[in-house]
Amino acid sequence: LEGDEGADRAERAQGYKKILAHLPFHLNCPRVPTQKGSPLLMHTFSVSFCPSTFSNAAPCSTNFTSPGGYIETPQQARSRYNTDVDCTYTVTVYMGYGVEIQVMNVSLAEGDVVRFEDLAGREPSVLANESILLKGLVVRSWSNQISIHFRSRQPQSSSLLLRYQAFVLSCNFPDRPAYGDVSVTSLHAGGEAYFYCFNGYQLQGPSTLTCRNATTPYWSGKVPRCLVACGGMVKNATLGRIVSPGFPGNYSNNLTCHWVLEAPEGQRLHVHFEKVALAEDDDRSVPVNSLSGRYYTLISHLMFKETVGEAQSVSSQCIAIRYEAFAAGHCYEPFVKYGNFTTTDSTYAVGTVMEFTCDPGYPLEQGSVIIECMDPSNPQWNETEPACRAVCSGEITDSAGVVLSPNWPEAYDKGQDCIWGIHVEEDKRIMLDIQVLHMGKNDLLTFYDGDDLTAKILGQYSGSRPRFKLYTSMADVTIQFQSDPATNIYGYNNGFVVHFFEVPRNDTCSELPEISNGWKTTSHPDLVHGTLVTYQCYPGFEVVGTEMLMCQWDLTWSGDLPSCERVLSCPDPGTVEHSRRVMSGPRLIVGSTVQYICNKGYSLSGNSLLSCYHRDSTGPKWSEKLPKCIPDSYEPCRNPGTPPYTIQSSEKHVYQAGETVRFSCMSGYELQGEPVLRCVPRHPSKWSHPPPLCKGRLCVLQCS
User: Fold this and answer.
1) What is the pLDDT of residue 597?
2) Fewer CB in 10 Å around end: N or C, the chain?
3) H or E segment to which residue 339 belongs
4) Does 412 lie in the same domain as 321?
5) Which of 285, 305, 328 is the last residue of a domain?
6) The domain containing residue 527 runs over which residues?
7) d(Cα 255, Cα 241) in Å, to the nearest integer?
8) pLDDT tens-digit profile of 373-400?
9) What SMART domains is this protein classified in (predicted)?
10) How many domains does the chain have?
């Protein structure tokens, strides 16, 4: 106001005060006594920033609880002034739901800070920050609460528009127990996981876990384990397996295990030794020639098995025995590990002829390829069934196949020197797909680009490596494996698995075959690099595997050939609000049912029982639509009244069943009784408690 005089000075000062009244500042001015008509003097004043003086600005930090909406920052009223902005927005949805945030628009100035955090744990977890913030970015929380922190020194040149919505959270897929498996009805809250063990193993822990609703959904317990029991009694033994504790690893020391098998009445038992590896001097098995019993007779002299382990550490010691019951007048069903067979009679009556084959990589050893069930008085096979075993060395002329380390999947022996030769047509080449390579560091696997050990080396490997591929320039390849004579390798799946394929030598990928119950479409007729082949299935079938394959630079396809498998189960029909469901089994196969039962206070609308059926080519479907659970109608509660000195949160004449009313006291009075009353649905409905009372507090005044 310097330079202003008289009334003009006073008028100008009043105008400045009106302008400053609308700015986010406090004016602290000393009072100066003046006489009427004298000029207004303002000696000093101080200015302090005060964001709360905005009369038209929305709060900077806000909590959002709706299932969806928009967040804009900074607010227009705040960003029109050149002041710092530091805002935190919190979005909270119902338990069992997460928050999905999509960046609709973003414009940040240098130095701006934006941080998205999940608030479920003890400490917030950062989900994203300004370094990756782009339009269209989607951020999902792990729990039902997320926060957005925005800080800017230049809010007038910054803007951020977000859209949020709730989505259903789910439990992680549970781990599969070793030597077992798991099936899951749903990963959402209420879904169940069912666990079971393979033959020879017993489940330790809960067989069923439930996905529980929480801030972050979780399974109701720990994943069970599949363990081997030391001995036991098996009644009505039809088909199964006995393995030593710790199988396929070594059994422990100082064990005495007894197994007794009891076949159904009138049937006999066949025992097949898959593997018996005992310490030479310290462990023993005790066979028993016969056991008298009500329900079984024996074909094998070994019915009672005892395994004794002394206190000496040995390697690769384990037992695996397969048992099977069969009817009188028939032969037992043969068993070939790593192989299969065809038969002329599935009941294995006298005269049945069987032919055996081995899985790829397992040549057929010992025994006969074809056997026959003979002797009506005492039926038995005329030859022992053969064995399929991964061997050391071999000559292979097939167009595709597998080369396995000796004894795979069991450990190979020390001091081995094995050579395999693979030969294809002269105008073809060989692609080697080394899917497993897990050997000792002193063991050696060598690939030669030719038909002998003098050819160029394609690669030489030891130890462990992830999956990789090699390509020959010749029509032959030689594989040599040498194991260290001084080192033992223990355990399953130690060794190598090499798949080989005959491939063309030109600049195109090999022709892909058609698939059953489906068809393929090709983007280019010549299958050159970049060609896409898409597989699709007929109605009622679904693609298993990768449906789209691409011809890569190395002239191989980007994935394995898919297949079309019939859809044998219905999709999960889902849950009905305010109800529970009862399933006929753990899997929703054709013929299974799902029944919905409404909670107390709700009535069913629609069919309660849904059946999975398959009548046409479209695949399995549910017989009915999902029902609904509708709340029952109850008489309302009348207003409970307002005792003296009490205050009702909402005064209404009547309250519907399930509604609540809250009481509080006037100042100076203390509430005695239940503060919240609920209208309990009945016929007639009534309040859960009598209204509370408010009594005066005892006050003590101290006078100085």
Assistant:
1) 94
2) C
3) strand 339-343
4) no
5) 328
6) 518-566
7) 19
8) 998 888 888 988 888 888 898 999 998 9
9) CCP, CUB
10) 8
